[in-house]
TrEMBL record:
Signal sequence extent: 1-22
Keywords: Signal, Transport
Superkingdom as given in the UniProt entry: Bacteria
NCBIfam families in the cross-refs: dctP, TRAP_S1
Pfam families: DctP (PF03480)
Protein name: C4-dicarboxylate-binding protein DctP
Family to which this protein belongs: Belongs to the bacterial solute-binding protein 7 family.
Amino acid sequence: MRRAFTAVILALGIVFAAPAFAQIDCKLGEVVIKFSHVVPPRGHPKGDFARMLAERVNTEMNGRACMQVFPFSQLYDDEKVMEALILGDVQLAAPSLSKLEVYTNKYRLFDLPFLFEDMDAVQRFTASEKGQELLGVMSDFGVVGLGYLFDGLKHFSADKPLLVPSDGAGLKFRVQNSDVAVAMIEAMGASAQKLAFKEVYGALQLGVVDGQENSWSNIFTSRFFEVQDGITETNHQLLAYVVFAPKEWLESLEPDLREQFLTIFRETLVKANGQAAKTSEENRQRIVDAGYTVRELTPEQRQQWSDVMRPVWGEFEDEIGKDLIDAAEAANVTKNN
C-alpha cells in the first residue's frame, strides 16, 4: 500500500520532506513581513495562501515591502507563534483557533462539534456581523485579525473502523490544545491526548494514541492515513484560522503602503478560500487513489454522532456566548427552513 502511495505522490510531484528553502533577500529600506506557519508551502490551504500572498507582495510592492514565508515550523510552531507575533518577531501568523484558548475563549465557538452543516454555512457566519466582531477579540493583546482562512471540516481516523460513536469507546485520540475537543472525545467514551501537530504522525505510528481528527489537507500532507485503519468522513468540526498581525506594526506603516498591503491581502484571501474547497477534495481523492479507506456515514449514523456530541455545546455556552452560538447555528440553511 505504501508503494502505491509513493507512486501517487511521485506522479503528483508532491514532496513531503522539508525542502531547502531559498528565502528571498530583502532590500535595504524595505518593510520586512515575516509569515510563520507549520504546514507545507504547497498543497495545503495555509501554505498556498502564504505563498500566493508573498508572490503578490514581492512583485507589486517591490522596493517598499518584502515578504518572507517560513513553513514547516521553521521559525515557530503554533504553540509559540502568537507570543512571537505579540512581541513583533513576526508580522503574520495564522494558528489554529484552538491555540488561542490562553488568550480568549470566544474562538472555542469554532471547535463545537456539528455546529456547521457545511462550509457554505461557515462562510455565511464569518461574513456576518457577529463573525466579523470575532476578528477583534484579540485587540487587548495588541494583535488584530485581518480575515478568516479556511482549511475545511474535520474527520476522524483510528486504528479500527469508526462508524458510530461507540466504536471509539476506550480509544485514545490526539486533539489540539482545545478543552472543547477534549470534551467531544470524552462524550464518545474515549480519552483525549493533547499533542503538538508535529508530534502526531509519530504518536500514531508508535501507538501512543489510537486515532486523530483533522481536515483532508492535514491528513494527506502529513500522511496520517498511512498509520490508521481508515478515515471516517464525519465533517464534525471546523478547522479554520484567523490571520493575525501586530496592531502596532500595522499602524506604523505609511497609510498608502498599509492600504496597498491590505488590498492585496484581502484579494488573495478571497482567492485562497475559493481554492481551499478544491484542495480539500483533491487531497481526499489522493488518499483514495493511494488505496486507503475512506468511510462515508449514512444519515442515521451521522445523526448518532451529532446526538452524542451536541451536549458539549452546553458545557461551553457561558464562556463563548449564547448569542454567538445562535448566530453560527442560524447560518445553517436546513435549520432555517
